[in-house]
Amino acid sequence: MKKLIKNNVFWVGKTDWELEFFHGADYTINHGSSQNSYLITEEKTVLIDTVWMPHATEFVANLASEVSLDQIDFLVINHGEVDHSGALPALMEKIPNTPIYCTASAIKSLTGQYHHPEWDFHVVKTGDSIDIGNGKKLVFVEMKMLHWPDSMATYMTGDNILFSNDAFGQHYAVEELFNDAADTCLLWAEAQKYYANILTPFSMLVKRKIEEILALNLTIDIIAPSHGAIWRENPLRIVEKYYEWSKDYQEDQITIVYDTMWDGTMRLAHRIGKEISLKSPATKVKIFNVSKTNKNDIMTEVFKSKAVVVGSPTVGSNILSSVGGWLEFLKELKFKNKKAAVFGCYGWSGESTKVLRERLTEAGFSVVAPELKWNWTPVDEELTGAAEIAAALCE
What we know:
This protein has helices spanning 56-66, 82-85, 88-94, 104-114, 184-199, 203-215, 236-245, 264-279, 295-304, 321-333, 352-362, 384-394; strands at residues 3-6, 9-11, 14-16, 21-22, 27-28, 33-35, 38-41, 45-48, 74-76, 100-102, 121-123, 129-133, 136-142, 152-156, 161-165, 222-225, 253-258, 284-289, 307-311, 339-346, 366-375. With 395 residues, the chain is an alpha/beta fold. It folds into two domains: 3-245, Metallo-beta-lactamase, Chain A (4-Layer Sandwich); 254-394, Flavodoxin domain (Rossmann fold, 3-Layer(aba) Sandwich), CATH 3.40.50. The strands form five sheets. The chain has a seven-stranded mixed beta sheet with strand order 1-2-7-8-9-10-11. It has a five-stranded mixed beta sheet with strand order 12-13-14-15-16, with no helix packed on it.
């Protein structure tokens, strides 16, 4: 069922309360999500984006109940990823000659995924526009690498709506659609998690693109992303937050991440946390066992932190695979301007701290010299290295 956004603009997407994972199993969803598709019924009838393929049949049937499909003048595909374009093949079976407006890169991704080079593609670039009647236009803004090379946003004049696709979204199901109807704490937590885990590697591009959009002097009354709540109350606040997050964001927080075999490394983690709190009482300290806490939630805390402390026991002259896998994800996100320290227990050879130091350096962290490396079972009164780590990270 369509829901009114503003005037002749309607939401025709899918709210998915049962969705648990995204990007395969690489992103964990805790509060549902939505795939937002939008229908514009001015003198021209326009569909902006579709939904994920598992919901294609439902989507096309619902859309047909709201508008005669052959009355759709053209489609806008802001981004070719399957969560936005998955219903396109089913829809194009019904209206095969309908023009599709997208970037040049989107043609590559759409034909590569769905193998229909005969579709009527029309390439658009930043500044191009289409008249949709009643004095309104759609203006296109390329958003390359936010977060695919084919991404763009579409701005609707008159109603002043920015259809931003993946930018400014969240994996968060909001039945009432809008940010002012959502749980504010959850909304902002999910928005930050989304940025931290998906957009952080492209932060420099985010900063430049926001500056470019603001330079266009567009009046923006509504930001309609492709996931989660639609921003109608103070919509530019999420733009301001993205700009803040894009500038090597950090708070006065240190996050400790570890895994342990027989609790020795766990004891080191908590001792380091205690010493940081003693050294700098105002600094937030958060401690996570990487095997017991969702990696995306941990990474959101790392995003907020000025430093991380990573620990693992030595296993086979290396580190635990749980920590190793997490470090690969950490490297992928390309955090900048953050410190790090390392720690771990060992029984025989003790290579874990060396491996951790190398991996964190590769991930772009400035690794401090002090470390806490303990042979066999830790003795609390002898863990002086914890205070040295705290001092180095709290300078």
